[in-house]
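note to self — DONT lose this again. spent like an hour looking for the file last time. sequence + predicted structure for the chain T wanted, 499 res
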Amino acid sequence: MLRILFALLLTAVLAACSRGPDGDALRQDVEAHLARAVPEGILSLQSFARRGSQPDISAGSDETRRIVYFDARLKLERDFDFGAWDGPGLAGLVSTLGTGPRGIAGVSNGGNKVGDIISAHGTAVYTLQDGQWVMQVSGAYRPAEAPAYASNTPRGAAAILDAMRKVIDAVPHEGTQAQLAVIEEELAAAYTTIRGRLVRINDGYSIAAGPEHGQYLLFAKALSDDRHTRTVPLVTRGGEENLRLLRAGKVSLALAQGDVALEAYAGTGAFAAAGAYASLQAIGSLYPEPVHVLVRADSRLGSVAALAGKRVVIGRPGAASRITALRVLRAHGLDEGDIVAVDMAIGEALVALRNREVDAVIQVIGVPANSVRDALAQVPLRLLPLSEKAVALLTASQAGYFPYSIPAESYSTQKQPVRTVATAALLLADGDLSESEVAALTRFVYEKGQDFVARGSAQGVQVSAASARLGLTVPLHIGAVRALDAMGQQQDSSGVKPQ
């Protein structure tokens, strides 16, 4: 009888062990990781529940790994802006919780307030080592202000039309050619603007975004989830192609890096043949896009300069990231001929890096990049820092770049900040959109309190009216200026300034 009881007890213990760590151990590990990823005193764990586990099928034949699922609710203990460009933010939070953007809710662009609740469906990967489960992955120029509308402007379409009729009738039938020309020009302009806006409201504003699974496309899709203004994301090869589509009038809006937008505006570099794009204007900056130089964790490569003679993915032609990658190499004394340049999109590039078919991947992308996080689930990767000299050279010689540090814990294997440069992701328009239309779009994009993260874009939390002018390399549309100034005044009057 004792043998039977002992066998049953042993079976129960082994079964429990095979399911990974228990709830208490899991919670302790998650809290320890949170303490490193988020400043002390910002969040408290209000509730935590283990939600089962499953074997990690990507584990090697000589190791035992399990993916453990959990739900967590965290409370803000003081005001905090997870979207701040220059501090620890959402990247460390989602990596610590092992969740995707759609798996976390409650993070607001423009800052969270004390008492707010953030909920997450998280995952953690554990390896069995010596009988113990060990957590591996937890997962400047200011345009002149436009005059305000007169206070006696009539309200409602019928009243406005009636008032316009009175103005026209007040002009003598034999009015001067100049007077009649003014009336005709203004009426024609109003007719064209109204027709254009009605069409765009019905058909939606097309946004040239980026490749499948890229951060641009994820943000454009998150923006399109809002029902107030219809936007239509388009899959493209990247920022360079986006700018060409915008110039050709094939899209209403485009996403592009600030450095490449400047080339298009000035008609230099890849856009020299087309000439200056003088009508290119910004609706605003969205979020910083730092340069990632990725190698396998077991690689002996320790610097960008050491990439000489190596197989390096620099991106596909048509992708703005490729232009930046070549500049980063030149800043380290390397020309394109000094490496074995490989043309790949980020998804296939990371697969090639995992399979040792390439030695490094250079990509300009928002933090945390979903593609990088997904790759880390398969093989450990490491970020190479840019040299101090290269950072100084790039930021001094190339408009649109600024020093940047990828915060520690942005990725599960990254324990220290990584020195690099960044450029701003810009939302761009052509001169075809009217001032009032751009103002409405600006309010739509930068409205405070939106949860872009819950809609699929981790970078969306960094989108705010307060940072909309950071890193701009092309003129800001006057409609955007008006809207952002008004939004700034509203925020100032609220008295809420997240720290």
